[in-house]
Amino acid sequence: MIDNVIAIVPAAGMGRRFGDGTNKPFATLGGRPLLAWTLLSLASVPEITEIIPVLREPDMEYGVCVLEEYKIPRVRRIAPGGRERQDSVFSGLKLIRGHSGAVLIHDGVRPLIEPAVIRDALRSMVDCDGVAAGVPVKDTIKEIAGDFVERTLRREALWAVQTPQVFPFSTIFSAHERAMRESFCVTDDAALVERYGGRVRMIMGSYANIKITTPDDLKIAEALMEMRGTPA
After folding, report:
1. Segment 62-74, tens digit of pLDDT
2. Can you list the positions of beta strands (E) in 137-177?
3. Angle between helices 85-95 and 169-182 in degrees, nearest 10
4. What pLDDT sits at residue 228?
5. Alpha carbon distance 102, 175 (integer Å)
6. How far apart are alpha carbons 159 and 47 in whole angstroms?
7. Are 121 and 113 in contact (CB under 8 A)?
8. What is the count of structural domains for the chain?
9. What is the domain-level CATH number for residue 65?
């Protein structure tokens, strides 16, 4: 398994679909902010030597309070967020320019990530340019144009991508730097590595590793926590 891993945790989203006035990374789940659950899971993996949350400037002070209240280890600095997720991740990468190890990127609003998935991602970082967790899609997926179906995609070949994603620092930094120069924007870091010829291995994530995007997602996460018996 690789070691000397720095985790970057983008949590600077505006939460447009979550509701006006709600700061999504700090929404409460099981008595704790979403971000606290995420950071504590990452901190439980010893190969991760540093964790860098990426927060909006107005959230920095409250973010420090969360770190202190929940005694989250290995967070020594916070990166300022950008306009888009890609800008935020790049902000975190620039903070560790010259890092010789690997980088793990995980969404701050995926609070139910299991340490086993994180460790599997790190173990799988062999003979490839990146690793992404994901799950096979369960539904039939159709490509449409306007209101009409263009084609039905072969479900057996389709996966829904998640985080964590792991890359050598030089690979992911170079991909982000080049994408910024070309004004190419995506919502998935692995897509940048793929765009520039990298080979990304997909590993099995977890159907419980949901991204909290709407208030309904929060209710689903609460039910999943109750099923898992996760203590608050």
Report:
1. 999 999 999 999 9
2. 142-145, 148-152, 159-168
3. 130
4. 85
5. 14
6. 27
7. no
8. 1
9. 3.90.550.10
